[in-house]
Amino acid sequence: xxxxxxxxxPEGIAARADELLQELDQPTPLPASPSLETSQSVVSPGxxxxxxxxxxxxxxxTSHLPATASSRSGIPRLFLLGSITAxxxxxxxxxSMNLTRTRISGSSAHKSPLGCAASATPCLSGKAxxxxxxxxxxxxxxxxxxAAPLTAGNFVxxxxxxxxxxxxxxxxxxEPTPFVVQGGxxxxxxxxxPATLYGTGSFVDPATDTARLIPLxxxxxxxxxPRYGAEVVxxxxxxxxxxxxxxGALAMARSADLNSASAxxxxxxxxxxELDGRYAVxxxxxxxxxxxxxxxxxxxxxxxTLLRGKRQG
Length: 313
Hints:
Helix content: 10-25%
CATH topology of the largest domain: Cyclophilin
Strand content: 15-25%
CATH superfamily of the largest domain: Cyclophilin-like
Number of helices: 7
Strand order of the largest sheet: 7-17-5-6-16-14-15-9-8
Order of helices and strands: HEEEEHHHEEHEEEEEEEHEEEHE
CATH architecture of the largest domain: Beta Barrel
Number of strands: 17
């Protein structure tokens, strides 16, 4: 009696490939633009950025350069990469159907226990309007509880708590190419916290005395619930995202951990399609985008006010 094809574990294949790459001690390949990570930030060549660690509160300064070919123990990098590629392609070819089901299929992704049903964070039902009074003028935001109920609900809750009041826009990237205005670190409102630590903080829930972290949340058209805890990398599925990084998009910053967003947010200064499916967009600027364009690093968010919106449940 003949045996069927041996099941191949795509997660094990990817993990082994990662182990081999780490042995080269080379930096991760660089994206086309700066990331919105609050720790282990990766930036494009030529940018010098502070990288913040939301979870540990540590900050480091790095200058990222293009990755170069190297060798270790006499093994050329290109040769090893070729071997890894062949290894991964062989395994993924045998397990492509299983990989599609586990990583891409919305039918399994939206059943994740990371959503509203399992979260203590209030979720948003429908839309909400929030006003930001900044040192440059007023901005109005529209939040989508339909596409991103958990992320939008978290933001609304923090607005109600006053967590954003008198905080600093600690990161503004508008030259040479407009990128983002980033703020929302609650500790930046504390005059005793040095500016060098801005961008390293999370919202600490006074009820538990621990940082509140929420998962990556991505809503796709035609799916009953958002997906949680996984990036959307397939181009065809990225095109179905309910909310995209258009100019004026409001989204959550996070660390390298996909489920580490807390309070820090950013506004896109131009369309940032390279971030679609990687960071959670949960709203947009509907009034005052010209004010956002004028914000400089170090400017303040004086007051955030909920104009309209309700919690879910």
